[in-house]
Amino acid sequence: MTNDPTAKKLAEMDVADATGVARLFGEVRSQFAAELEAKQNANQWEELRGAWLGRKSGVLTRISDNWLKPAKPELKRAIGQALNDLKAHVETELESRRLAIEAAADQTALAREREDLSLPGMMRPLGSRHPLRQTFEEIERIFLSLGYTVVAGPEMETPYYNFEVLNIPEYHPARDNMDTFYMATPPGPGPLLLRTHTSPMQVRTMEKQQPPVRIIVPGKVYRRDNPDATHGFMFHQIEGLAVDTEITFCDFKGTVEYFVREFLGPKVKTRLRPSYFPFTEPSVEIDATCVFCGGPGCSVCKQSGWIELFGAGMVDPAVYGFVNYDAKRVSGFAFGMGVERLTQLKYNINDLQLYFQNDVRFLRQFQ
Hints:
Elements: H1 5-12, H2 18-38, H3 42-53, H4 59-68, H5 73-113, H6 131-145, E1 149-150, E2 156-157, H7 159-162, E3 193-194, H8 200-208, E4 213-222, E5 234-245, H9 249-264, E6 270-277, E7 280-289, E8 306-315, H10 317-320, E9 330-338, H11 339-347, H12 360-363
Parallel strand pairs: 1-4
Antiparallel strand pairs: 2-3, 4-5, 5-9, 6-7, 7-8, 8-9
Helix pairs in contact: 1-2, 1-4, 2-5, 3-5, 4-5, 6-11
């Protein structure tokens, strides 16, 4: 206002009577209101405040100098009261405008920074559990529901636990270095190897625990195989063991049939074929009706209607001798299943190598 000719004229006018006081102060208020309305940001507000409330050249200071000090005694009271009212009005209106400007600035900042949730978001690819991991978890769920416990053991084993205690003699072809990965002999009692099955945990558990024993042992195993659609030098296995008094072959058969139905579906049937494994007697192969053709025969099951699942059998009493179990009092069964094979059957996967190639197109199918 200090640069406004009208404001200067108002501040420099003489006040002759009470009527003139009221009229002039009314015009000053109108002028202030007009200038206040035009101020829309903090810088403009600061300029306006200095122009009206400045101690040296502010409008109110000039009104005091030009109107109040030289006024006639009979008008000083009226001018002084009007000046005080004007000052209070100016301060109140300036504070209100400051708060309004700050609020508007806050709203502008919020609007600028706010995320519009109505806009479509960025679609990011979601990861999923690997099909082998899903199979692991499904098998574990089934056996946990039967009261089994999940245990883990070392992938680097000794020949004693990997072979001898499992009734696999030194001359057995499985112990040849053409089939087994032997490690460089470290300082110590003997050689080490990469376990060829998770069965060593059978004996390691029975050494520490008296019957009853019900465990499954998931993990990686290693064998000297050339990788192709059905073989790999590293694969996954789940070993199972149940030992207690009065466990019979019927218990074994019922457990196996329950697992197959839970894993492959209630319509799948099972059969047991005689087989041989060094640490089970009798030993059997577990077959299931073909999950692809349902039984009539197809190229996958070689027109037989049956697919081999895994090997199993009753624990050979010779194994109990290594853990000081009384073979006349306890009995049990064991099984070992390849996780890759079961995953292939459940999800109709025809090439084992797909599990390890990290092809996103393959993995996305299992979300």
